[in-house]
Amino acid sequence: MEQRVIGLLGGMSWESSAQYYRLTNELVRDRLGGLHSARCLLASVDFAEIERLQVAGDWDTAGAVLARVAKALEAGGAEIIVMCTNTMHKVADQIRADLGIPFLHLADTTARAVIAAGMTTVGLLGTAFTMEQDFYRERLASHGLSVLIPEAADRAEVHRVIYEELCLGVVREESRQIYREVIERLVAAGAEGVILGCTEIELLVGAEDSPVPVFPTTRLHVEAAVNWSLSEEQA
């Protein structure tokens, strides 16, 4: 069948973008069989540049950088944009504004999975930006979800592990245990499930590390993109 081309806006970090590329191709292979692979374009930015803008709070400039890359993907033949990061969905509206093709919002695909599982209250793990600012939590809340975040000390540890370890490809058992304990505290606070709201987190923990279901945002995002690519439905 004819695949529609998925544009992957990645590099934030490349560790997680590699998972996006792998999963996209694996899912297409599993759906179509044989030697099939995904029709996709990957544009990878320099994360050091984006991270400096995050720390400086210069989201407008970061959004402008990513908007240019998204437009380049569109010009190259992409028929949908999938941004391979949770945090930078803070500038999703800025990126989407100049596109003539759909932008698949990661928080929407995640929220739909949570709702399909029959849950209304979820814990959220991610970078400090994702956990503490409104852009992501409010997007989830717009779907009718209640979102819990860890206490301040736990948020700091979750953020540190992402930037100092996972973004560098470092996976430590000690950090896995830290995340397990944070998850347990979220569950004790009332979380029915936990959103792994940073693409790198899936390198560290999974369903086996939580007493409640987890929602791996990378896989959910890719599944939605591949489903769209292989169907005639509107994004």
Task: Give a short overview.
The chain has helices at residues 14-32, 47-56, 59-75, 92-97, 106-116, 128-132, 134-141, 152-164, 173-188, 217-229; strands at residues 6-10, 40-44, 80-83, 121-125, 146-148, 193-196, 214-216. With 235 residues, the chain is of the alpha/beta class. GO terms for molecular function: amino-acid racemase activity.
Give the SSE layout.
Blueprint: E1 6-10, H1 14-32, E2 40-44, H2 47-56, H3 59-75, E3 80-83, H4 92-97, H5 106-116, E4 121-125, H6 128-132, H7 134-141, E5 146-148, H8 152-164, H9 173-188, E6 193-196, E7 214-216, H10 217-229
Parallel strand pairs: 1-2, 1-3, 4-5, 4-6, 6-7
Family: Belongs to the aspartate/glutamate racemases family.
InterPro entries: Asp/Glu/hydantoin_racemase, Asp/Glu_race, Asp/Glu_racemase_AS_1, Asp_race
Keywords: Isomerase
Count of all domains: 2
**What is the alpha-carbon Rg in Å?**
17 Å
Unreliable sequence segments: none
Biggest sheet record = 4 strands, parallel
Helix and strand pattern? EHEHHEHHEHHEHHEEH
InterPro entries: Asp/Glu/hydantoin_racemase, Asp/Glu_race, Asp/Glu_racemase_AS_1, Asp_race
Organism: Nakamurella panacisegetis
Keywords: Isomerase
GO molecular function, one term: amino-acid racemase activity
